[in-house]
């Protein structure tokens, strides 16, 4: 048995859909990060507009609205998997729900919260799937930044969670090639498929205990934040699109 931490996004949906096909009966509980209040959503939209520009923001908004039906909560309901929404890992409600889990394995799937050290030290094994070939492109929007950087491949990494951000020892990786004219969306879906494959392959072993992993090389690490106007310009110059 294992528990999942994830977010209510179309890409989380894509990974969960493939994961549930194989492990629905093995999932004890899923924790979904709360999307926040309307004012917080509006504030985030304003920040994206300021950093990345109107065109990027409107295309991203159109995508999210057009895929609102691809909700992890609805998917979990169809499989009759227990889930709850949490706004903060430090809240008493979240602490009680996590403490109640019998599982010793916790899987993070595109979860947009940082796990506190106190939780990592006391609640078993935590692993994460990240849509890049770590240690390159740690952080936010790795597929966008890889295409902005004119890379010829992206991928997915399954790694242990430590006190850093996307910095834990690597368990396994799978590369996803990038082709000229490809969209960020298509490449991201490719990473979702690779992430689900890694989880389906390694969860049975991870459920039994620790597996061999290699530390990340800090010299090879790159980290990125939210998309910017300049990053979006370079992505288009490289022949890529958003959707």
Can you put this structure into words, describing what you see?
There is one protein chain. The chain has 243 residues and is an alpha/beta fold. It has a single domain, classed as Formyl transferase, N-terminal domain (Rossmann fold). The protein has nine helices and nine strands. The strands form two sheets. A seven-stranded mixed β-sheet has the order 3-2-1-4-5-7-8. The protein has a two-stranded parallel sheet with strand order 6-9. It is globular, with a radius of gyration of 18 Å.
List the helices and strands and how they pair.
Blueprint: E1 2-7, H1 10-23, E2 27-33, H2 38-52, H3 54-66, H4 72-78, E3 83-86, H5 92-99, E4 105-109, H6 117-122, E5 125-130, E6 138-139, H7 142-148, E7 153-160, E8 170-177, H8 184-206, E9 223-224, H9 229-237
Parallel strand pairs: 1-2, 1-4, 2-3, 4-5, 6-9
Antiparallel strand pairs: 5-7, 7-8
Helix pairs in contact: 1-8, 2-3, 7-9
Summarize model confidence as the mean pLDDT. Answer: 93
Named at the architecture level, the CATH assignment is: 3-Layer(aba) Sandwich
Please write the CATH class name.
Alpha Beta
The figure for the number of domains is 1
Count of extended strands: 9
Beta fraction of the residues? 15-25%
CATH-derived topology: Rossmann fold
* Uncertain runs: none
What portion of residues is helical? 40-55%
């Amino acid at each position: 048995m294992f528990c999942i931490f994830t977010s209510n996004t179309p890409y989380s949906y894509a990974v969960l859909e493939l994961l549930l096909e194989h492990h629905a009966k093995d999932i004890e509980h899923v924790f979904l990060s709360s999307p926040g209040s309307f004012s917080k959503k509006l504030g985030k939209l304003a920040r994206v507009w300021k950093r990345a520009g109107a065109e990027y923001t409107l295309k991203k908004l159109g995508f999210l609205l057009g895929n609102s039906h691809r909700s992890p909560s609805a998917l979990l309901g169809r499989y009759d998997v227990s889930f709850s929404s949490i706004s903060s890992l430090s809240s008493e409600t979240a602490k009680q729900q996590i403490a109640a889990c019998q599982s010793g394995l916790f899987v993070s799937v595109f979860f947009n919260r940082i796990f506190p050290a106190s939780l990592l030290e006391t609640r078993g094994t935590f692993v994460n799937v990240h849509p890049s070939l770590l240690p390159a492109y740690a952080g936010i929007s790795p597929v966008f930044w890889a295409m902005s950087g004119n890379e010829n491949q992206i991928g997915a990494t399954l790694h242990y969670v430590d006190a850093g951000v996307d910095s834990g020892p690597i368990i396994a990786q799978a590369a996803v090639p990038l082709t000229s004219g490809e969209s960020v969306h298509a490449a991201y879906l490719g990473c979702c498929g690779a992430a689900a494959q890694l989880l389906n392959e390694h969860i049975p072993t991870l459920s039994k205990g620790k597996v061999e992993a290699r530390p990340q090389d800090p010299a090879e690490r790159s980290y990125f934040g939210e998309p910017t106007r300049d990053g979006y310009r370079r992505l288009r110059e490289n022949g890529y699109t958003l959707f």
